[in-house]
């Protein structure tokens, strides 16, 4: 079980989103992959946050990763995203997202949202380390039992979250947020996964 990325995102209902604070644990990737993987994690986080309606939680699978997203909306227009492997349990992920958003709004004034570079929220680094073990979130789960009553929409693929007719490949190609190296990494990784699927089948 592994959490790769946690992001807090300003996600207005219309327009593009901005990452206000994030932390990554890319220790399982090689030195040469970390930059590209980090860029892709940020891109995926922003994409799922923008496409999750306000007030909803959902889990989106993209290859071997699951992006758990909670778009709280409201006056702050904040969303939080955890990108983890498929083994990381859903319930602790959503409990952690709620806790992170609560603490972020308590410690970071909304007036600073327009200038993400000025935001200091070091707690996010503690969370990504502490909650690698989902059992650490059990205390959060006990406090937030209303999560059981919340409808969590699980999407099997990111394509179902994207607008009709949009493909992740097209978004990657059009994105200005990804470097050429990250785009090449994504295409190579996709081709390798497709080749492995063909060999196994």
Overall 3D geometry? globular
Q: Roughly how much helix do the residues carry, as a percent range?
A: 25-40%
> How many helical stretches?
6
Pattern of helices and strands = EEHEEEHHHEHH
| Biggest beta-sheet profile | 6 strands, mixed
Ends: how far apart?
Answer: 26 Å
For the largest sheet, list the strands in their spatial order.
2-1-5-4-3-6
Kindly estimate the percentage of residues that lie in beta strands according to DSSP: 15-25%
Average residue-wise pLDDT = 79
Overall SS class? alpha+beta
Spans with pLDDT under 50 lasting ≥5 residues?
A: none
DSSP strand tally? 6
Q: What is Rg?
A: 17 Å
Can you summarize this structure?
The protein is an alpha+beta fold.
Output the keywords.
201 residues; globular; single chain
How would you characterize this protein structure?
This protein has helices at residues 31-50, 90-107, 123-130, 138-143, 168-174, 180-200; strands spanning 3-10, 18-24, 56-62, 65-73, 78-85, 152-155. The chain is an alpha+beta fold and 201 residues long. Helix 1 crosses helix 6.
């Amino acid at each position: 079980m592994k959490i790769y990325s946690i992001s807090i995102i300003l996600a207005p209902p219309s327009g593009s989103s901005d990452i206000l604070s994030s932390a990554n644990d890319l220790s399982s990737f090689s030195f040469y992959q970390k930059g590209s993987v980090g860029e892709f994690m940020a891109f995926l986080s922003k994409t799922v946050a923008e496409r999750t309606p306000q007030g909803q939680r959902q889990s989106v699978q993209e290859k071997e990763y699951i992006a758990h997203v909670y778009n709280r909306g409201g006056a702050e227009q904040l969303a939080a995203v955890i990108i983890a492997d498929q083994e990381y349990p859903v319930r602790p992920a959503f409990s952690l997202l709620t806790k992170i958003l609560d603490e972020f709004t308590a410690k970071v004034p909304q007036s600073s949202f327009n200038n993400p570079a000025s935001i200091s929220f070091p707690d996010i680094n503690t969370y990504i380390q502490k909650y690698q073990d989902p059992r650490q979130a059990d205390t959060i789960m006990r406090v937030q039992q209303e999560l059981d009553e919340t409808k969590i929409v699980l999407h099997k693929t990111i394509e179902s979250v994207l607008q009709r007719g949009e493909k992740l490949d097209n978004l990657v190609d059009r994105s200005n947020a990804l470097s050429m190296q990250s785009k090449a990494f994504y295409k190579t990784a996709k081709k390798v996964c497709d080749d492995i699927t063909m060999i196994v089948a």
